[in-house]
């Protein structure tokens, strides 16, 4: 295949990011990777404020793209395509990044690839050396998403289950808010849990032992809120114990749901599989260790991207864009920003012309 060099742009939540990636017959190479987080701007509100996020993207996106291009020592003319997140996400932020991508594509006469952010996460384990080969079972756990997806090929995804209420990252963030730990909550809950007694609070494990691989965290969240109400004034030890008890419940839930998802995956793809975790929550070491142990138990290889590619980044967007470009796909400049965009629809968008796209591909 001809090597493809693609600029990726990510702005769907609270990270402004740009990266340059080259895809050749040896796989993807991240040439530059710049992420500018907005945590400090959102911290006073203990959560992401969409308007603040959109304005912050406007302020720093140009500089972020310039930094990624400078790090890569490339000019726009040397790129083969521009990939920008087109959804799902906070609509103001998505519009900022997508419009910037369209402007660069138009000015430099390059193809635009409108990337589904979830496809970026789904393919992110392939960024690392020796990354996951298809097919694999993906647990996507982030601030806005919580689902199992069979990743069969680029653009070919089957959703097995998803959350009925909160995303897992959201549950971590809400507990942190309840305990006044700060924002973003996930890493703070994880480190508080290290000093806590995971058996002190008997918390529910919603859907444990049930069929399927959907998630629910509302009951767990409510039980945490009740415990806080009962305690009244909380000591640091109370907080650590609650975090540890919460995380223990999460680990049991994730293991139980993953076992069921593996059964669904096995029934189609045979027993020896690959389990991949991606999204911000996949940065949690306790969750990674539990999934790794489960993988050993079930004969699955467990793969998680390096931490920097678990949370939102543009390298994964550039990869999804380059993979689509390789298959001969690009998008019209009228492509809309989408606040909601399920990944399974990705398959519908790609499948009808999938074979034609392959034939037409340059590789
Ligand atoms: P993303 O939505 O992929 O940008 O990831 C952000 C989400 O991941 C937020 O909800 C964070 O609280 C969560 N997160 C990040 N690090 C951790 C961690 N170590 N443990 C649990 N959740 C985490
Ligand atoms: Mg984020």
UniProtKB/TrEMBL annotation:
Molecular function terms, GO-annotated: iron ion binding; tRNA N(6)-L-threonylcarbamoyladenine synthase activity
Q: Where in the cell is it found?
A: Cytoplasm
Cofactor(s) needed for function: Fe(2+)
Q: Which residues bind substrate?
A: 140-144, 173, 186, 190, 284
Residues that span the membrane, as ranges: none
The EC number(s) given in the record are: 2.3.1.234
Entry cofactor note text? Binds 1 Fe(2+) ion per subunit.
What's the protein name? tRNA N6-adenosine threonylcarbamoyltransferase
Task: Tell me which family the UniProt entry assigns to this protein.
Answer: Belongs to the KAE1 / TsaD family.
Q: Where is this region: Disordered?
A: 344-363
């Amino acid at each position: 295949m001809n090597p493809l060099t693609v600029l990726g742009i990510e702005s769907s939540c609270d990270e402004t990011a740009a990266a340059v990636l080259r895809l050749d017959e040896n796989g993807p190479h991240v040439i530059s990777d710049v992420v500018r987080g907005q945590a400090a701007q959102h911290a006073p509100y203990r959560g992401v404020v969409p308007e603040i996020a959109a304005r912050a993207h406007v302020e720093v996106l140009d500089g972020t793209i310039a930094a990624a291009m400078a790090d890569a020592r490339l000019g726009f003319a040397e790129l083969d395509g521009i990939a920008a997140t087109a959804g799902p996400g906070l609509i103001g932020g998505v519009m900022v990044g997508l419009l910037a991508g369209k402007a660069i594509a138009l000015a430099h006469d390059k193809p635009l690839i409108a990337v589904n952010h979830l496809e970026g996460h789904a393919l992110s384990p392939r960024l690392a050396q020796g990354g996951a080969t298809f097919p694999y079972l993906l647990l996507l756990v982030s601030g806005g998403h919580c689902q199992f997806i069979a990743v069969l090929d680029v653009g070919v995804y089957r959703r097995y289950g998803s959350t009925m209420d909160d995303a897992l990252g959201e549950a971590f963030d809400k507990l942190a808010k309840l305990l006044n730990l700060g924002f973003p909550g996930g890493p703070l809950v994880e480190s508080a849990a290290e000093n806590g007694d995971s058996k002190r609070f008997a918390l529910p494990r919603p859907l444990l032992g049930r069929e399927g691989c959907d998630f629910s965290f509302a009951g767990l969240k409510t039980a945490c809120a009740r415990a806080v109400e009962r305690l009244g004034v909380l000591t640091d030890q109370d907080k650590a114990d609650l975090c540890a008890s919460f995380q223990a419940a999460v680990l049991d839930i994730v293991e139980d749901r993953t076992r069921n998802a593996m059964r669904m995956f096995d029934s189609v793809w045979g027993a020896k599989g690959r389990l991949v975790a991606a999204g911000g929550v996949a940065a949690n070491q306790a969750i990674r260790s539990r999934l790794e142990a489960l993988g050993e138990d079930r004969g699955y290889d467990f793969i998680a991207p390096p931490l920097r590619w678990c949370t939102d980044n543009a390298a994964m967007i550039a990869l999804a864009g380059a993979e689509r470009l390789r298959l001969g796909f690009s998008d019209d400049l009228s492509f809309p920003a989408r606040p909601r965009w399920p990944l399974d629809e990705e398959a519908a968008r790609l499948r009808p012309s999938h074979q034609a796209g392959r034939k037409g591909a340059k590789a």
